[in-house]
């Protein structure tokens, strides 16, 4: 027990050291030697992470999957498909990347088939979202809201991440808004069994249903990944989550926002 407490204390002190400036002094006056904390960083980042609610209709392929008896058995659904199941409600997260233009990035699988998109900000304002574009191959979607006083999350560089770097996953798991979970990068360039196309950041920061589309940030509060999926039960975290590297996501977003004119 004493050894574990020492390890935990060393971890917290190490994280705090990462948030210090070159002189060894805290970047924020609220961080003291007596109380190491990531709170100042999260206070800056949390307003840039939003909750996204989607109302839509299932595609023919999804309805076909829903009719599969084995699929319904695995997820505890009734044996027969009900008419109302043609519609769906989904909830996840998004990240403000351009405050001036109301640009929000999220995962494609969250908003795929959406007929209505509702965005709730950290201050409880609820806005209507408009789809700008989607890249299914990279599981990236861009939506836009009309609002003032938005806060963007600064972009980092996922190419510099190393296994063992501390990261924080921020989102709205199970509808619990503005939730942050601490962990480390547990794998670089990982293959995601759910979405085998592309490489992902693997992390043990808890990623649960509702976190999809949320932010994975380093201890400086820079966006290094977009939370995408997890391995294990559909209702709980198993310690292995995947995030889309921000370097790859930014390339997809740039293509969606600035499409290359087609040649006739």
From TrEMBL:
This is Trypsin-like peptidase domain-containing protein. InterPro entries: Peptidase_S1_PA (IPR009003), Peptidase_S1C (IPR001940), RCK_C (IPR006037). The keyword RNA-binding does not apply. Transmembrane segments: none annotated. Residues 102-185 form the RCK C-terminal domain. Residues 1-19 form the signal peptide. Keywords: Signal. Gene3D superfamilies: 2.40.10.120. The keyword Signal applies.
